[in-house]
Amino acid sequence: MGCAGSTPTKGEENTKKLRKPKPWKHNQPITRTHLKQMRDEFWDTAPHYGGQKEIWDALRAAAEADLDLAQAIVDSAGIIISNADMTLCYDERGAKYELPKYVLSEPTNLVRDS
After folding, report:
1. Which residue in 34, 39, 61, 63 has a CA-CA distance of 20 to 30 Å to 47?
2. What 8-state DSSP symbol labels residue 91?
3. What are the start and end residues of every segment in region (Disordered) (predicted)?
4. Predicted pLDDT of residue 76
């Protein structure tokens, strides 16, 4: 409980505005094909580490969407954004969802597939 008047109204508690992740660099240059493989592997295995499959699906859809659509997806799914770049989220039951930067944006050292 907070001070009088400090309790958010229904629907306002999850309204942290999403933003693009900060630029990042993979430990070695990476191709788009390898990045896609890493992303697919993460999304295929993520639900096995806890949380609800529906929330993982919503997080994937949001990660692959533009910012406005991503915001609508997380808001409608009831996902609580702890970090504005979506690297740390929670569902309404308190389950924690950690997303690596490579599923949210491309590295600065992305190279062409040869």
Report:
1. 34
2. -
3. 1-31
4. 97
